[in-house]
Amino acid sequence: MGLGGVMIATNGLAAFALVRMFSLMFAGDRTPMTSRAPEPLWLVVLPMMLLTGLTLHLPLVMQKFSLLPQGAGEIILNPSLGWLLLGSSGLGMAIAAFFYLFRAMQRPAALVPPIFNRLLAYDFYTPKVYQFTAIGSVWLLSRLTDWLDRYVVDGLVNLVGFTSLLSGEALKYGNSGRLQVYALTITFFVAAIGLYMSWSYMPGLMVMLFKQEALPSSL
Length: 219
Hints:
The chain is mostly helical. It has 8 helices and 2 strands. It folds into 2 domains: 2-111, no CATH class; 146-218, no CATH class. Strands 1-2 form a two-stranded antiparallel ribbon. The protein is elongated, with a radius of gyration of 44 Å.
């Protein structure tokens, strides 16, 4: 029931929109676009006419090839639904012609409150909502990524390069060319590395030494 109501309402609105467009083009005020309309080419007219004929004859084609639903051996047809669709189309066309073709009253836009006019004119403010949600989040994320890339990643890389350059310059001026200095430096760093690597084993070694010193006194 609800799906049928939606279909009937959509059919009526489509008929209203078509007659409204026809009235604005051929019964409204003359505009530069309607003063002389170009004739459509046969490449446009012929496919449109063929598709129109196919659409109008589609129920008969489906009945001919037994494509309609079957029930109890007979084809299920609903004449009331057809009359409802026809009535909704006629009602939509009549309302559009009443307002736009014959201009018997003001246009429907003047009868609707301004707030609803603005709501429909701006498509329920969908572009603004999309701009402040999807586009805004992407813009914020891109700015954050650009800031991180510019000040964090590039800053860290530049800091490492500057530190390497500064340490190289310091080592260049601290180079004396004497073998004793090189040997002392190598010995010092080898001892420091060995001490660092054996630091975790120092407590165990101290305990073993204390135990070995305590054994003769106990005997």
